[in-house]
Amino acid sequence: MAPGFRRLARVALLACAASVSHAASGAEESAACTLPDLARTWHRGAEPAPEGANRTEPPLWVGRTESAYRIRLQPCRDSDCDKFGFRGWLPVDIPAPGRYRVAIDQMLWIDAFGTRGVLDGVLCEHAGCAPIRKIVQYDMPAGTHWIALAGKLEGSVGVLVSRVTETDRLPATPPWQR
So what's the pLDDT on residue 44? Predict the structure, then answer.
């Protein structure tokens, strides 16, 4: 097997494992933030989102991108909660098609739903923008989408949906850290 193919296969396997796993990165929070716009938006403060929203109902309120919100995780009322006992929903308006990141301040499961169901996401664990603990990116068309957060404990979680631009893409992992 050619060395280039082995390296490509190893990178592909690692990328696949990272996109499936929603585990903590273990990185230290004291690192310099490489996403300063995201950190600035987060630190402006989060407004509470109305409680009780659920994807099975038309939203009475819809959040915006580039704004931080606090979502209350409540006991699951449906069977799609799987191994988690608590879920929170954020309806958000995506103004233009593109790649968007969903950043949260806890290690929870993140799903994004469009009009055709759940969207595929790419896990982008990122330390250094404390209190941000987890980031997942999604390619989204314009329109209303639902962000679902699920966990094993009741409580509230900070969430921010923001557009990913060419200038703020996450830096590539150096080869010696792969």
Answer: 77
